[in-house]
Amino acid sequence: MNDERDLKRRREESNEPQKKTTSDYVKLNIGGTIFATTIKTLTSQGNNFFSEMFDEMDPGADGSYFIDRDANDFSIILSKLRGYDIQESIKEMNAKRRRQLIEDINYYSMNDIFSDCFDENGILNNAFICTSDRPIISLITLKDGRLVSLNSDNIVEVWDIASCRRTRIPINYKIARAIAPLNDVRFVIVAFDNVFCVFNLLTGKMLNSLPHDLIIAAFTTLKDGRLVIGSENNTITIWDIATNQCVETSNGHTKCITAFTTLIDGRLVSSSVDNTIKIWDVASGNCVKTITCHTDTITALTTLKDGRLVSGGVDNTIMIWDVASGNCVSVLVGYKDIPISFNKNKYFISALTTLNDGRLVSSSTDNTIKIWDVATNQCVETITCDAKEEIKLTTLKDGTLASICGN
After folding, report:
1. What kind and span of H or E run contains 3?
2. Around 87, how many Cα atoms within 13 Å sit in the side-chain half-sphere?
């Protein structure tokens, strides 16, 4: 400190321009917004734009140094230089916003400082990115940990997560709607308008096709390997894949089936455009409970580890249900409260899943993924994507969250 004071005194006596020291307080005018900090903070993590700026630039009449860049980006950069954790702020950005931030990081020559946050393409660290050639319309996890997707070109893609390498299986059969896993990880079921087919993932060959009289709207598989199909005419059918036979038909909904899930005890849960949730005894085919509360179409279902049921819908609401009583025990608040019609293609809950630690994950057509602590009913993290299609979710064997979230 004494050396710096002596240097200032000698320069004053000799009329030599004073060179700023690391402890000097400075004002920066970034795109019209004033920031106050020190040179030490600005240069604390190696050489960058500011290491030489003060020798080459003079302050304005108000004593601030003007830089014609984005103030919001600089606020994040300065917080990082000050040692604050900025990971949450970056996660809330969409890919386009992160790329804009990266442009300013490059301008200030601070790439190395942010290498722990994301790569040069704006991809968050600790995330794997598997890119398909075409938009992905359905996503599932196999019991062996592999990820399987179905894209809009009717191609099944089997992904090895560690390497992001894929095996591609073209499907030469109409327009595919969705995909579901079977108990045997060698096989998957693909649904079309009124046909569902079994494919061998090892050979890429279709084993058999099972015609369905009605248009398939939703489908899933039970723990015993049987297939459940929800039709656009409100009917639920259960199929024995081994014999290609429909073994059960259930009616109860008054409009198109939208989603399925299964409870811990094996009972089937369905939702519909009629705004109801129905719980079915699979053995008898009887509806044992009807739940009504959503004000519009229910679009997603899942179950929590403690057995409670979760539903999300076009009313942009997530509800948690006690299955025994049929009562709604929690309503999760965090999405825009805009009651809308399903056909207007506005914001609605598009998918639900649970993580291995018990937290709930939801996605919405507002391009966000939210992670919820169901003990407190609080949203603990929001991730923003640049999704042009509905975001779909699945949980991998190791607990990692996987999503369709493409540009």
Report:
1. helix 2-14
2. 8
